[in-house]
Amino acid sequence: MWVILYLFGALAVLMALQSGVLLLFRQPLQWTFGANSQQPKSLKLALKGVLQGTLIGSIFLFPYLQGSTPGEFYGPLFAREQAHLFLVGEGIALALLALIYGIETACGWLYWKPRWPVQKAVSKSTLSALSSFTVVAVEEPLFRGVILGTMLASGVPWWIAIPVSAVVFSLAHFIRKVKTYWPAVGLAVLGIWLGVAFYKTRTLWLPMGLHSGGILSIGIHRCFLNYRGPERLVGTQTFPIAGLISIGVMLAGSAITWALFSR
Q1: What distance separates the 2 farthest-apart alpha carbons in the chain?
Q2: CA atoms of 128 and 173, how far apart (whole Å)
Q3: Can you tell me the distance from the alpha carbon of 173 to that of 47, in angstroms, rounded to the nearest whole number?
Q4: Segment 187-220, tens digit of pLDDT
Q5: Tens digits of per-residue pLDDT, 36-65?
Q6: Per-residue pLDDT reduced to its tens digit, 78-117
Q7: What is the DSSP letter of 229?
């Protein structure tokens, strides 16, 4: 379980670097990570750089602490013969979220109304497409490759390792200041599904595809769909997977993934 301590160590480094940046910009220190709307753009960019730099640094440093190298550690997790699973996962996520949005719209809990002009909506959708690759390229090696993979390799039973890694994955999204913590439940369930996908395939391709498709779909739907249904049922604009409908679908997806990839 020392790998969890490693993650918290990375978090401590992140907060220390943030404090240094805030002091450099003569801004008050804060206990949550991230910028607010009142802070200058240059500070926001600096904080983003600190976050990405710390996460990427953590991913590359970990193998050396294991007496290995990044290539040796992550290479087997990107087996070429299973690369097609990325597209499989992406397609599954896009199809399921489209189904969820369709059901919720038909029930009147979501309604179609573009939130921005066409040019801005296209720009945001394009950024979502790009982030659907960049985010999973960092988060999946960290949460599934490092945390879950190391626990499994250390002999931790899957029925402990998968839920623990899922909770850590969920909590990591709340180092920023948020309005509600209910989405933590949906993120933990997503973490379980991604953990099952990793455990059953032993590569990062399928969880990366599922995660990427989810980011892409959520990013695009924010531009056109608005919420008026109960949050507990349909989630929020930022976290649509937090709703009970999505949670049920993800639990079913976890069970189906387990069955399909059992050998």
Answers
A1: 58
A2: 17
A3: 16
A4: 999 999 999 999 999 999 999 999 999 999 999 9
A5: 777 788 988 898 899 899 999 999 999 999
A6: 999 999 999 999 999 999 999 999 999 999 999 999 888 8
A7: S
pTM for the full predicted model: 0.95
Task: Dump the DSSP string for 161-190.
Answer: HHHHHHHHHHHHTTSB--S-STHHHHHHHH
| Per-residue 3-state assignment (H helix, E strand, C coil) for 56-117 | HHHHHHHHHHCCCCHHHHHHHHHCHHHCHHHHHHHHHHHHHHHHHHHHHHHCCCEEECCCCC
Q: Tokens representing 141? A: 């090696």
3-state secondary structure of 39: coil
> What CA–CA distance (Å, rounded) separates 174 from 105?
28
The SS3 assignment for 153 reads helix
CB atoms within 10 A of CB 209: 26
Residue 147 burial by Cβ neighbours in a 10 Å radius (0-12, 13-18, 19+): buried
